[in-house]
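tokens incoming
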């Protein structure tokens, strides 16, 4: 039938065979501890150290518009949302936002764990969708994952620069704003600035990722240890300065603030899915991938809630909207030494997050290139290092340059909607494979299916509704660009289409 090739599916057996081809085989050196560290490395970064304050505080925009209103508010109030002057903050209830989002991500993590144990292939949700929903939706989700990983790392690079400035400032060293702040800020527009610090860090990590996955994983594990220690030190030291009055009112903007805050801090949980992108570099993926995904999410949820409770307890929530809220809050209560240590931990957290997301992004491009949907050069593997070096280098440039231009709030919101859509499709893929391939071995199974996968889909839609109308428009524009590329280039060069004899 005309158009039926758009929904052609790649069998799981073919996916496994392609991954085992000698010329494109990756080095298998990761165990469950390394995978858990990769997950923590990706999850704990900019989120806990920056977005906790961003989501707790209100966002006031220069020009009120319906575009700045959450979609749910537009649906409920229609044109009455046109005067929205910004996003409502969650206030002290940001801790509740973190807990609710942890539940949502936990549901999605269960779905990722089942699919990763079935299909241990680099590509994450893109690969799972290709095997269940067909090529067109696989392309859409792959294009969406490119947005998730690239934009997430741009945001982390912006946060990294802010914390370097904070650390140097504690020693009396001041860098010119033109080299440490992005060119675009939503409250003041464009400036002749460039975030050179974030750009240079992305380039350094690109070199490390080309050298090898084992070396990258070891460096990440060390940085994960440092940042976990920094978070524990912050919670312990700052908890002595908590003033319960700062927690009143607990929900200043009601459930709308909690939901919108949850949609913002969802960005902080992005990362556990990146564990599945390292599937082809895992020694025992059917056992270790589910463990790495679930353990990393659980550990990070506990740490996040602890930071949120303490941070909103030591400073009024209205004062937390700045580029380095944890560091600035510590300085405000006089804990300068703790501030310096936490800032170092924050920097380690952001570097490890950058590392893992750059790894994941390159593997997505690698998988799509291997399927013919992106240029073939992106699936080349370095003869010595056995890493996708071309995809890694291109990803470094694609992330590093925009990181010097845009602010963290714009980037984080754009990453959130793309990731939530990916999680929704992964949950749907679990339901489809349970029906179409019930006998295929699964090292891990989502309990209470189909209830939990369906609940995961519903929760993802609810959080997406908490994002602004402006973000939805940007999301559909991004998807539109992706569809143009697919029909103009990718559909004609699909290896699956060539194998089946389908002519574009």
């Amino acid at each position: 039938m005309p158009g039926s090739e758009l929904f052609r599916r790649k069998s799981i057996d073919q996916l496994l065979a392609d991954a085992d081809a000698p010329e494109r085989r990756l080095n298998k050196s990761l165990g469950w501890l390394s995978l858990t560290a990769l997950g923590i490395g990706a999850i704990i970064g900019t989120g806990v150290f920056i977005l906790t304050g961003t989501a707790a505080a209100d966002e006031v925009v220069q020009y009120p518009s319906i575009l700045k209103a959450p979609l749910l508010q537009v649906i409920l109030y229609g044109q009455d949302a046109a005067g929205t002057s910004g996003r409502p903050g969650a206030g002290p209830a940001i801790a509740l936002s973190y807990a609710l989002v942890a539940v949502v991500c936990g549901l999605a993590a269960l779905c990722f764990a089942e699919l990763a144990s079935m299909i241990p292939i680099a590509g994450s949700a893109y690969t799972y969708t290709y095997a269940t929903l067909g090529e067109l939706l696989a392309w859409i989700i792959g294009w969406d994952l490119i947005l998730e990983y690239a934009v997430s790392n741009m945001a982390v690079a912006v946060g990294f620069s802010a914390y370097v400035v904070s650390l140097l400032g504690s020693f009396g060293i001041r860098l010119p704003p033109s080299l440490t702040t992005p060119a675009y800020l939503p409250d003041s527009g464009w400036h002749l600035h460039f975030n050179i610090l974030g750009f240079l860090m992305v380039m350094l990590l690109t070199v490390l990722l080309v050298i090898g996955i084992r070396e990258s994983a070891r460096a990440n594990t060390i940085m994960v240890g440092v940042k976990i220690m920094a978070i524990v030190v912050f919670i312990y030291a700052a908890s002595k300065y908590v003033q319960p009055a700062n927690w009143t009112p607990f929900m200043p903007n009601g459930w709308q603030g909690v939901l919108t805050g949850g949609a913002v801090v969802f960005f902080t949980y992005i990362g556990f899915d990146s564990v599945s992108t390292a599937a082809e570099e895992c020694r025992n993926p059917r056992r270790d991938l589910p463990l790495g995904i679930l353990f990393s999410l659980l550990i990070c949820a506990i740490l996040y809630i602890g930071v949120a409770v303490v941070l909103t307890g030591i400073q009024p929530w209205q004062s937390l909207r700045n580029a380095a809220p944890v560091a600035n809050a510590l300085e405000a209560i006089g804990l300068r030494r703790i501030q310096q240590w936490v800032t170092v931990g924050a920097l380690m957290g952001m570097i490890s997050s950058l590392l893992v997301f750059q790894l994941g992004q390159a593997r997505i491009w690698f998988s799509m290139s291997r399927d013919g949907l992106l240029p073939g050069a992106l699936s080349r593997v370095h003869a010595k290092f056995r890493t996708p070096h071309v995809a890694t280098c291109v990803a470094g440039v694609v992330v590093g340059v925009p990181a010097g231009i845009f602010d963290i709030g714009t980037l984080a919101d754009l990453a959130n909607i793309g990731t939530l859509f990916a999680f929704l499709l992964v949950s749907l893929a679990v339901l489809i494979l349970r029906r179409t391939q019930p006998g295929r071995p699964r090292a891990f199974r989502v309990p209470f299916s189909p209830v939990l996968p369906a609940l995961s889909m519903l929760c993802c839609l609810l959080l997406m509704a908490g994002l602004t109308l402006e973000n939805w428009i940007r999301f559909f524009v991004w998807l539109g660009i992706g569809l143009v590329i697919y029909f103009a280039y990718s559909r004609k060069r699909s290896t699956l289409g060539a194998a089946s004899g389908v002519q574009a």
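note: The chain has a mean pLDDT of 81.
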